[in-house]
Amino acid sequence: MTLPDHGTLAVWGGATYEVASAAADAVTLRVPRDSGPLPDHLEGGTRRDGERWARVPKAGLERYFSRHVTVQWQGEEFGLGRVDGDTAEIHGSSPTVADRLGLEGDQYNGFRATVPVEELSVVDVREREIDV
Q1: What is the secondary structure of 35-85 as a DSSP string?
Q2: CB atoms within 10 A of CB 63
Q3: Number of folded domains in the chain?
Q4: Do both 97 and 57 map to the same domain?
C-alpha cells in the first residue's frame, strides 16, 4: 500500500515537494535524489546526510498547503508520521490505547509506534491551503 504524502507541501513546476522550512518570501523544498539537476536560477544543494534541497520563491509556487493523514491500526485511529520504506510512525493521544497496544510516550508528548505500512489503512486525508 502506498500512503499519501503528509505534512507541509508545495507544488512547484508541476511536482509536489515536502517543505523543509519557510521564510517570509521563500520555501525550502526537499528534493528527491532521483529528480535530476536543479534549474540554474534556483539556490539549492545537498546536505551532509545526502538529502537535496532547493529554495523557491513563494510567488512561484502553484500550491502551498498542509495535509494531515489519519490511519487505522489494530482497530484504532492514529495520525500518520514519517514513512520510511515499509514502516511508518503513528501518533496517538490516548493513554488507554497506548497501553493496550504498546505505544511509547506519555500523556504530555503523545504516544507513538513504528509499524508495518501493510498493517495500516487510510481513514481520512484533510488538506488546508496556506496563504503565501
Answers
A1: S-PPPTTSEEEE-TTS-EEEEEEGGG-SEEEEEEEEEEETTEEEEEEEEET
A2: 13
A3: 2
A4: no
> Is residue 58 located within the same domain as residue 14?
yes
Collect all residues with Cβ–Cβ distance below 8 Å to 129 and sequence separation of at least 6: 63, 64, 65
101-126: per-residue pLDDT in tens? 999 999 999 999 999 999 999 999 99
CB contact at 8 A, 33 and 84: no
Residues 47 and 75 in one domain: no
- Rounded to whole angstroms, the Cα distance separating 14 from 36 reads 15
The C-alpha cell that represents 88 in the structure block: 511508518
pLDDT digits (tens, 9 = 90+) for 12-25: 988 899 999 999 99
The gap from C-alpha 22 to its chain's centroid, in whole angstroms, comes to 15
User: C-alpha cell of 76?
Assistant: 484504532
Q: Domain range for residue 20?
A: 7-65
